[in-house]
Design goal:
265 residues; 7 helices; Deoxyribonuclease I, Chain A; ExoIII-like; 24% strand; Exodeoxyribonuclease III; AP_endonuc_1; manganese; alpha+beta; metal-binding; six-stranded mixed β-sheet
């Protein structure tokens, strides 16, 4: 069995003070992908930077206090790669992949965007250059007899079932028609990936993985499903369980996102 968990920690130092370490100590995963770490390794305590029982790989952003991704593995990775070959995003702290026996696992933090701003332009540039890399990653994995799994905060709700208030968000970044169409390409013939959570839960709303801290979004389950595990078809076919680890209460949350955990046979 291979169990992979992915979560946007919304600042690893802050999460560590709210319960992240306690969660990690009870985590049964073989791999944990983190997004929005927002810290360099030197800024983390030893307990957070190198948790007992884990091999930790980091890709911080050159912009201080922004982005940052990490991958924790129970066994030492065979290789670690930062970025996906596009100079603009090489040091942006948005993509890191590790090779494990038979499988490449990546942590992704896709830009969030904001309509009418440079942030949205950046998001669109990222999407435009990242899809060809995903195609390349899948093709190379197939040639090598391997599988690939890209986990993380994709910052796009793909379908109406992926966010509670979809009607009110049709003109907002994260649910724009062009963003959703791009994700359809990732999951279609061009990209060839499988959204493993949706594959196991095809007929339900959600399960949501992000809730705003404003109002009572969490209590009312007014959320978005923007955290995905996208697998190559061979690996996706071995998925036996997929769930969002939603906190029992608002007070017990240590991030505005919840961990997404998938088990492969």
């Amino acid at each position: 069995m291979l169990t992979v968990t992915s979560v946007n920690v919304n600042g690893l130092r802050a999460a560590a003070k709210k319960g992240y370490l306690e969660w990690l100590s009870g985590c049964a995963a073989d791999v944990v992908c983190l997004q929005e770490v927002r810290a360099e390794e030197a800024q983390l305590t030893e307990e957070v930077r190198r948790p007992a029982g884990w091999h930790a790989s980091y890709a911080p952003a050159s912009a201080k206090g922004r982005a940052g991704v990490a991958v924790l593995t129970r066994r030492a990775p065979e290789a670690v790669r930062v970025g996906f070959g596009v100079p603009e995003f090489e040091s942006s702290g948005r993509y890191l992949e590790v090779d494990l026996p038979g499988t490449t696992v990546a942590s992704l933090y896709l830009p969030s965007g904001e309509v009418g701003t440079e942030r949205q332009d950046e998001k669109e540039r990222f999407m435009e250059t990242f899809l060809p890399y995903l195609v390349e990653l899948r093709a190379k994995a197939a040639v090598d007899g391997r599988e690939a799994l890209v986990c993380g905060d994709w910052n796009i709700a793909h379908q109406e079932a992926d966010l509670k208030n979809w009607r009110a968000n049709r003109t907002k970044s994260g649910f724009l028609p062009e963003e959703r169409a791009w994700l359809t390409r990732v999951l279609g013939e061009e990209g060839g990936y499988v959204d493993v959570v949706r594959a196991l839960h095809p007929d339900q709303d959600g399960p949501y993985s992000w809730w705003s801290y404003r109002g009572r979004a969490f209590d009312n389950d007014t959320g978005w499903r923007i955290d995905y595990q996208m697998a190559t078809p061979g690996l996706a076919g071995r998925c036996v369980k997929a769930q969002v680890e939603r906190a029992a209460s608002h007070a017990e949350r240590w991030s505005d996102h919840a961990p997404v955990t998938v088990v492969f046979d």
